[in-house]
Write a structure and sequence with these properties.
Blueprint lengths: L13 H13 L7 H21 L1 H11 L3 E4 L2 E11 L5 E7 L2 E9 L3 H16 L9 E6 L3 E7 L3 E2 H7 L12 H8 L17 H19 L2 E2 L8 E6 L2 E6 L6 E2 L23 H4 L7 H16 L11 H6 L14 H10 L10 H4 L8 H14 L8 H11 L3 H5 L16 H6 L12 H13 L6 H7 L4 H10 L3 H13 L14
Antiparallel strand pairs: 1-2, 2-3, 3-4, 4-6, 5-6, 7-9, 8-11, 9-10
Helix pairs in contact: 1-2, 7-9, 9-11, 13-17, 13-19, 13-20, 14-20
């Protein structure tokens, strides 16, 4: 793996001593007294300082390589002229190849002990979590005298880049770099992140958010805590005909040992961006997998709002996160109750009150249009007299549902709740006078029955009606969501409270939602 010529002398060389000390420190467990760890670490740093003074010639050689177009180290070829990104600690990511495969090459400095451990930890955790399609794939590692090179799956951009390329509001648009402009006009030219009718995430963005959660589920299942989730560490890759989100940057992730539920080392990254860490990280409290859920909540808010943050502006975020009394402003997603419900649970100050990742994956925020419509139609069916739902549960459902009419439908100018005024234009009412016969326009039950009947008979309706409501699943769902944004989640909450365990509804609530 190394292209360095070692001294053939029998006497111990500085690099041998460094490697032996590193091995000794890595073998220590959580019961090792801190003074012993500090002593070994101090000894190692002093040897490294001595060795660094002896290796000026080698450093010069590496500097000259920086001026070359590429560098070959074992199976990895680094394209030095094609930099993807860099961090303040000296880590640089280049385009490159692992054998014949296009990859991203992450180059870490060996001269800093913590960075060396970071490379090994990232490699170990990537291998552990490699069974998930939502974790960046690890291909291999090589090293030379000064650097460690990790060959990783090459992606197209990160979540932050994607939101910048496709802003939610045209007024937010900022000039893009040539590379991103080219990417937007070629590989990503047909991307749609926002639904025009509802201003909610498109099915694609909804999928990407679900991908993030799936990646986190895989990490936590392997007992790995990421510790540095943020939009820049969520990579996006084209997975024809769609996109896929993958978690990356595992350098400061940690694996929980044995049966432990928290980490014993609370050291934070010195280069992390502000606003994405949980309060217990910022306050140096007990750190568990729950801190990744806090970060996820902030990222979901960022995704849904097109780049905003629940804890305010850049300069204030960390301070607001540490303030238990701070109340996020939900105005931007006030008409998206599913999002408010999930995100508010994820960013709770107390870690123990946040849901686990595998529970988050089943939240109705991630239901597609077809499943949402089927749930509403199924609820409408169960309210019919002939349904097999018990009379007690029907009564409970109706007692809870009907008082939500004002919240779901709202009142018209005469102070009355009338859902019919929001769904049909005058032409359709004139051409199809019997379209609304038999419905009570102030009733949530009858609104559900109307949706159920129109959805069930969609394919048999005239073309004029189909065009009015939109395509059968997504278009039809968006039509009613845009007019009654509170409907789905109000009905969901009532059914969950009244009939969650009933055989007729049990399938919708499997997984703990």
């Amino acid at each position: 793996m190394s292209d360095v010529e070692h001294n053939s002398s029998d006497s111990p060389q500085p690099m041998d001593i460094i490697k032996a000390a590193e091995t000794a420190i890595k073998s220590l467990d959580d019961n090792t007294p801190p003074p012993i760890i500090e002593l070994l670490t101090t000894f190692l740093r002093e040897v490294e300082k001595y060795h660094k003074g002896k290796s000026t010639a080698s450093s010069s050689e590496v500097s000259s390589n920086e001026n070359q177009q590429e560098k070959k180290v074992g199976k990895i070829k680094v394209l030095l002229s094609k930099e993807i990104g860099r961090s303040a600690n000296g880590t640089i990511v280049f385009e490159g190849y692992y054998e014949v495969r296009e990859v991203a090459v992450k180059r870490l400095l060996k001269s800093h002990f913590d960075r060396n451990l970071e490379a090994e930890r990232e490699m170990k955790n990537l291998i552990t979590s490699d069974r998930s399609q939502n974790i960046v794939t690890y291909y291999g590692t090589e090293e030379d005298y000064n650097f460690i090179y990790l060959a990783l799956e090459r992606c197209d951009c990160n979540l932050d880049n994607l939101i910048q390329m496709y802003p939610k509001n045209s007024s937010q648009h900022e000039p893009l770099s040539k590379d991103f402009e080219k990417l937007k006009n070629t590989k990503l030219r047909d991307i749609k992140l926002w639904n025009e009718n509802t201003c909610r995430p498109s099915p694609l963005l909804q999928k990407l958010m679900s991908d993030m959660v799936s990646g986190l589920v895989a990490l936590h299942k392997s007992r790995i805590v990421h510790r540095d989730l943020k939009p820049q560490n969520i990579l996006i890759i084209q997975d024809s005909p769609t996109l896929c989100a993958k978690l990356a940057e595992m350098g400061i992730s940690r694996q929980l040992r044995g049966n432990k539920l928290s980490l014993t080392d609370h050291k934070s990254s010195v280069c992390a961006a502000t606003g994405w860490k949980a309060p217990e990280q910022l306050l140096h409290g007990q750190q568990t997998a729950a801190m990744d859920l806090f970060s996820l909540g902030c990222i979901l808010f960022f995704s849904i709002t097109g780049g905003e943050h629940p804890f305010g502006n850049d300069d204030d975020r960390d301070q607001n996160i540490k303030n238990k009394a701070y109340k996020p402003d939900w105005f931007l997603i006030k008409d998206f109750p599913e999002a408010v419900d999930l995100i508010s649970s994820l960013i709770k100050f107390e870690a123990g009150e946040r849901p686990q990742a595998n529970k988050v994956l089943h939240h109705p925020l991630f239901w597609d249009a077809k499943k949402r419509l089927e749930f509403l139609c199924h609820t409408g069916d169960c309210l019919k007299e002939e349904s097999t739902l018990s009379d007690d549960k029907k009564t409970a459902l109706l007692r809870r549902l009907e008082p939500t009419a004002n919240k779901i439908v709202g009142k018209n100018g005469w102070g009355k709740v009338r859902w019919d005024k929001k769904i049909l234009n005058d032409k359709i009412k004139k051409d199809h006078p019997n379209f609304l016969c038999g419905y009570k326009f102030g009733s949530v039950k009858h609104l559900l029955l109307f949706i159920r009947n129109k959805y069930a008979h969609y394919v048999h309706d005239p073309e004029e009606i189909q065009k009015h409501f939109g395509t059968q699943d997504e278009g039809f769902g968006d039509y009613f969501t845009s007019r009654f944004p509170m409907l789905f989640f109000e009905v969901y909450n009532v059914v969950r409270d009244c009939c969650k365990d009933d055989v007729l509804f049990k399938a919708y609530f499997e997984g703990g939602s």
